[in-house]
Design a protein that fits this description.
The complex is a heterodimer of chains A (115) and B (113). Helices cover 0% and strands 53% of the residues of chain A. By secondary structure, chain A is mostly beta strands. Helix content of chain B is 0%, strand content 49%. Chain B contains no helices and eleven strands. Chain B has strands at 5-7, 10-13, 19-24, 31-37, 44-50, 53-56, 65-68, 75-79, 88-95, 103-104, 108-112. In chain B, the strands form two sheets. In chain B, strands 2, 4, 5, 6, 9, 10 and 11 form a seven-stranded mixed sheet that branches. In chain B, strands 1-3-8-7 form a four-stranded antiparallel sheet, with no helix packed on it. In chain B, strand 5 (44-50) and strand 6 form a beta hairpin. The chains are: A mainly beta (115), B mainly beta (113). At the A-B interface, strand 5, strand 9 and strand 10 of A face strand 4, strand 5, strand 9 and strand 10 of B.
Chain lengths: 115, 113
């Protein structure tokens, strides 16, 4: 079992829909949680960065972290065709031999928003 | 340029050839990282530099992989005697410190035939 599990999709939604993406993880040492967006043939671009548990909102994006369940989510409201990309969760943390700089990524979920 | 740049963007190598991949981090960024992204997978950590010091090379898959950052800015990832399983996108990232946001370059797509 990988440290970070993410359903690769693909996920296809109509424009304007609310999108829910999520990851589960097994390493309780993870403290820093990130969501990256990656367009085809581009590098990952940071969308959201959360430390420990809780919610964080930025425009149409909301990130949630539930450390007790080892579950993180990204919600996209009023999705747009320009949101079509692969969404990668990533995390890092001290403890159990971990490090706060080494990002462990999920596989990525391919999202298509149809006009 | 304000972002991380990588060259070449694409590289085709014959099995057994040596390749060198270059990364230019954001100016002033202390930390530099290399990741490997196989097709359909998330990036996987290879190695980490703080200035010119390579502090972590635990992710390098074999001794054929070597990375350096001699002056604490530009970094080169070298792969000797390339194998087909080395085919992947090699991503470079930099950050101001250790826990700050990692900014990724566009990657070098390596295909070994």
């Amino acid at each position: 079992q990988k440290e970070v599990e993410q359903d690769p999709g693909p996920l296809s939604v109509p424009e304007g829909a609310i999108v829910s993406l999520n990851c589960t993880y097994s390493n309780s040492a993870f403290q820093y949680f990130m969501w990256y967006r990656q367009y085809s043939r581009k590098g990952p671009e940071l969308l959201m960065y959360t430390y420990s548990s809780g919610n964080k909102e930025d425009g149409r994006f909301t990130a949630q972290v539930d450390k007790s369940s080892k579950y993180i989510s990204l919600f996209i409201r009023d999705s747009q065709p320009s949101d079509s990309a692969t969404y990668l969760c990533a995390m890092s943390g001290y403890g159990s031999g971990g490090s706060n700089y080494k990002l462990t990524f999920g596989k990525g979920t391919l999202l298509t928003v149809n006009p | 340029g304000a972002g991380v740049s990588q060259s070449p963007r694409y590289k085709v190598a014959k099995r057994g050839q040596d390749v060198a991949l270059r990364c230019d981090p954001i100016s002033g960024h202390v930390s530099l990282f290399w990741y490997q992204q196989a097709l359909g997978q998330g990036p996987e950590f290879l190695t980490y530099f703080q200035n010119e010091a390579q502090l972590d090379k635990s992710g390098l898959p074999s001794d054929r992989f070597f990375a350096e950052r001699p002056e604490g800015s530009v970094s080169t990832l070298k792969i000797q005697r390339t194998q087909q399983e080395d085919s992947a996108v090699y991503l470079c990232a930099s950050s101001l410190g250790t826990v700050e946001t990692q900014y990724f370059g566009p990657g070098t797509r390596l295909l070994v035939l």
